[in-house]
Amino acid sequence: MTSLNVNGRVHELEIEPHQTLAEVLRDKLGLIGVRVSCGEGECGSCTVLVDGRPTTSCLTLALQVEGKEVMTIEGLGNEDDLHPIQQAFIDEQGFQCGVCTPGIIMSSKALLDADPHPTTEKVTAALSGHICRCGAYPEIVRSVLHAADLMGGDCDC
Amino acid sequence: MTAKQGYTVVGKAIPVKDAKEKVCGTIKYPVDFELPGMLYGKIIRSTEAHARIKSIDTSKAEKVPGYVGVVTHEDAPDLDWHGVWFNYVGHIFDGIARFNGDEIGAVAATSKRAAEESLRLIVVEYEPLPAVFDEDEALLPDAPQVQAAGNAREPNVYEWGDLEAGKKAADHSVSADVKFGSQQMAPMGRNAAIAEWSGDDRVTLYTGTQSPSELRDGVAQAFGVSQSKVRVVGMPLGASFGEFWSNNFMMVACLLAKKMRRPVKIELTNAECMAHVKRRHNEHCRAGMGCTKDGEITFIDVYHIMDNGGYGFKVEVGYFNIDNWGARARSGRYECQGVSTNLVTGGCMRGVGDITMGSIVERMADQLAEKCGIDPVEFRIRNQIKPGDPLRQTWGKTLMRGDQEDWEKLMRRSGREAPKELLDNLPRLFHLSSGSSEGILRKGAEAFAWKDKFLGWGKPYKAVGPKRYAVGVGTGIHLCGEEMEGNTDAVVRIMKDGSAKLYCSVGRHGTSADTTQAQIAAETLGIPIERIEVETGDTDSCPWSRGSLASTTLFRTGFKTWAACLDARRQLLELAAQEFFVPSNPSKLDIKDGLIFSKDPACALGRGCGPSDKHVSISDVMTHMRADALGPTDSITGRPAFPMPPSSAFSRHFAAQFCEVEVDVETGQIRLVDFLVAQDSGTVINPKVFAGQIVGGAIVGAGFALSELLHFDDKGAVINANLSDYKVLRMTDWPSASTKTLWEEDPDPVGPFGARSAGEAPIAAAPVAIQQAVYNAAGVWVDLPMTPEKVLDAIKKAEGRDTARSTIIDRVPVSTPTSAS
User: Fold this and answer.
1) Is the pLDDT of residue B130 over 80?
2) A42: which chain B residues are within 8 Å (Cβ-Cβ)?
3) What is the pLDDT of residues B373-422, one digit of tens each?
4) I want to staple A98 with a disulfide (CB 3.0 to 4.6 A). Which of B22, B224, B357, B705 is the partner?
5) Helix ranges, B668-814 (H)
6) Which of B798, B804, B780, B785 is nearest to B663 (CA)?
């Protein structure tokens, strides 16, 4: 049995050595907000935070994160209690089909935690590992800048 | 961008209906969906481009724990099924592989891993057949034949004016001969099909599709069951761009579930999505164009071949540039021919034909403009179609019974319940009803400071070291849905509590069609948008509809949504008038915020009818004990009571885009510096959804212009079916900070609230603008995609030829395939 700390809860799970973090989060914990697209770390849609750092869960073995804190979109907020970044993405419509959205929001969280007042260039660079095939890039950048405003730059959320 | 005057919700940038689910990660795509007792399927794919299947040996796979069984061509019904718009015509399996990766069987197991392991152990023996991969070679007399019907589809021709006279009258003429590789939809999030059979040959299929109704018909056809036995539940899916309409893997899931007598889920890998489902056609465009010295176009002559791959049967790409550039051209001839090859099926990707043939016609127009010394913005304004001009794409003419007057009579007769405003403003068929590129070109040029940066053809406005900076402009056009391949429909139900549910079969692939349809319904019914829900995917409840393709949704489905809501509204007001108002006159009544009130003091609410003396709520009307029925109404269903005019015969939507590029003449690298995306789509229903559509279109078009290209090996296998080697644009490739949008809203006389469509024209304008900007920066025309190698190559060639600025092949356009190079 392996202990995985996901979204602030510790789960005791039987994990096989070959299983990726994405597989375990989706198939064993039902966290479908972890979206797998390319499966090879190119598109960023499966991004979760591991000890606060954006990590492509499709390329990470689940056993590698034992003892670390994993956060998925489900841990950030929900429909009744949206995180300001989620609210900002709604306000600016920083998405279309929604597949890349959870991963982008998680990377945005890591960025805003490290830099509460990022410039457009910093946002673009921080999200360069994400593909939005619908082409919502300008709206995504605006969403993150708006999130920074909503969070006031000093929010510990 | 405020709401239109007098409208409550049309024109408002309300958040889309599934916004919370998308930002919280709770929205369910097919990959997230499972059924009790479900098996997992994997598709056995051919490793040959063209072969007869001799045997499929499963003996090793059978030993895998969890293996359940396989299906092959021996289990498949001997029936053809036809995908939407001839994007697929074939059997589920028929014992022949027609492309590398073709479906030839499928295996089912109790877990995903067991299915993958079983697939790995299945051995297929092939009898290879000769294969053909090039659209020109496929037309040669001794070419291997991919389909029993032969490789060549019947050419499709449009002509007007006297072409020979047009050629003679030209003071300047140019030509082009360009082969386009394939763009891949490169969908995000994969797709899955989950099928379950029950009882008496009834099947339910859950999958991500842009066209649930047409998929239902395909399943019925493939299995020879009645359409009433098939239920498709169309689910949300990732960016699709035409990839997921009705695809053979969905049929394979149904077949596997039928034989296994258990629900089966087939989830595609990213590589399968990119290599084995569908792609944009490979195309070969040969064309010529000429004009007088004053810049009046005297002829356009286009011969275009498109490669349909293994199972496509399309006879033409959508060449709507024929309308944009042809309306005012003295003469023209467009010929298009579909060809089968042993490559993965080619089909309609967003902006089909616009982005390929359209870009050639625009490039030739630019070269003519240069010869005449005319600015590209001005050249477009002078020559492109305006409202009232004739359309050259005239599919429907052969179906006309009589002339315009006869048609209008028929419309008035069958459309008795249509609003007078519509019947008084019926469009003139085969002429443009509204909109054009003119307004957006003028406004765009001003907003982009075009005149400051366009210093003349082939002239950068700035140079810094090896870097050249210049601007370009491009236009795009597409139709707003089309009627002959199938109509659209919608139904609305008013609930007892005054809420409403709209049923319209459309796709949920990121275009937020459910939200814009709900806005149309809310505006028409006078019910708050929060109280309107939309069912888009379930064919058991939604009436048949074309789905979301060919830019159909907002214009055609939106029209039917509006018409269905008008019908429900009429019923509501008649009932309210009968039961509540004195005198009983529904024409004096209106609905706002779910409350019915009289617009005329002479028609008043009867005494003691409700809690208010000013209005009565919809729920009061629905639950009121009727004097005629001695009971409540409880349910109102609204259906369109009048036909929709044939939109392909009058409506188009227009894009104009301006861009600035930086071209490094030493490395060939192109960087996008600035982009202005402008559009005329009539009334904009939701500005945020609309802006997303037009900018997103520009970005996918820019990807085709700069880096997107599917590569095949010499056995016809796709070798870059992944997002590392297939280069879509990333956040850092697009100038987000400087991206601007603007639009003109010339209202359409037919479209709902004056709206037209939006999604396909923008993808076509971007490559043109970028290509022209690169020419202005570096003095060379470069074929798409303009990779650094091609840019450098073109620059070197041009330098070698001293005086020549262009790489265009200057030869007379050919009009027969025998002249193919």
Assistant:
1) yes
2) 722-724
3) 999 999 999 999 999 999 999 888 888 889 999 999 999 999 888 999 99
4) B22
5) 687-706, 761-778, 788-800
6) B780
Contacts of B730 in chain A (CB under 8 A): 128, 130-131
* Single-letter code of the amino acid located at B675: F
- The fold of the B484-638 domain, in CATH, is Aldehyde Oxidoreductase; domain 4 (3.30.365)
Partners of B24 on chain A (C-beta within 8 Å) are 33, 73-74, 77-79, 82, 86
Per-residue confidence at A157, pLDDT binned at 50, 70, 90? very low
- Judge contact between B492 and B501, C-beta under 8 A: yes
Residue B819: band (very low, low, confident or very high) from pLDDT cuts 50, 70, 90:
very low
The closest CB to that of A120, out of B269, B729, B737, belongs to: B737
Determine the 3-state secondary structure of B652 from DSSP: strand
The CATH class for the domain spanning B432-482+649-819 reads alpha beta
Contact map slice: B 384-423 vs A, CB within 8 A: none
Given an 8 Å threshold on Cβ–Cβ distance, is A133 in contact with B237? no
The domain spans of chain B are 33-129+186-277, 403-429, 432-482+649-819, 484-638
Quick one: how many helices (H) and strands (E) in chain B? 19, 33
What pLDDT score was predicted for residue B609? Answer: 63
Provide the pLDDT for residue B816: 38
Distance from CA of B701 to the nearest CA of A (A): 10
**For B274, which residue in chain A has the nearest alpha carbon?**
A38
Touching check for B638 and chain A: CB below 8 Å? Answer: no
B56 bridge partner residues: B124
Please report the pLDDT score of residue B319 as a whole number. Answer: 83
B235–A contact, CB cutoff 8 A? no
How close A82 gets to chain B, by Cα (Å)? Answer: 8
Structure confidence by residue, pLDDT tens digits, B179-230 = 999 999 999 999 999 999 998 899 999 999 999 999 999 999 999 999 999 9
Which of A31, A97, A140 is facing B510, going by the closest CB pair?
A97
Range with the lowest mean pLDDT among B82-86, B337-341, B589-593? Answer: B82-86
3.10.20.30, 2.60.40.1120, 1.10.10.10, 1.10.760.10: CATH of A2-75: 3.10.20.30
DSSP, residue by residue, B209-237:
-S-HHHHHHHHHHHHT--GGGEEEEEE--
Which pLDDT band, with edges at 50, 70 and 90, does B318 fall under?
confident
Distance CA B500, CA B633 (A): 15
- Determine the pLDDT at residue A154: 54
The helix (run of H) or strand (run of E) holding residue B653 is strand B652-664
> Does residue B610 have a pLDDT over 50?
yes
Does residue B654 come out as left (phi exceeding 0), alpha (psi in the -120 to 50 range) or beta? beta
β pairing state of B103-109 and B67-72: antiparallel
Q: Would you say B788 and B813 are in contact if contact means Cβ atoms under 8 Å apart?
A: no
The overall longest dimension of chain A from CA atoms, in Å, is: 44
Cβ–Cβ below 8 Å for A100 and B731 = no
Would you place residue B809 in the very low, low, confident or very high pLDDT band (cuts 50, 70, 90)?
very low
Candidate from B20, B698, B730 with C-beta closest to A128: B730
CB contact under 8 A, A39 and B269: yes
Asked whether the beta carbons of residue B188 and residue A43 sit closer than 8 angstroms, the reply is yes
Q: Do domains B33-129+186-277 and B432-482+649-819 have the same CATH topology?
A: no
| Amino acid residing at B266 | I
Does the N-terminal peptide bond of residue B735 adopt cis geometry, omega within 30 degrees of 0? no
Superfamily (CATH) of domain A84-151? [2Fe-2S]-binding domain (1.10.150.120)
In the Cβ-directed half-sphere of B491, how many Cα atoms lie within 13 Å?
Answer: 15
CATH 1.10.150.120, chain A: domain bounds: 84-151
Among the partner-chain residues B189, B270, B736, the one whose CB lies closest to the CB of A120 is B736
CATH of domain B33-129+186-277: 3.90.1170.50
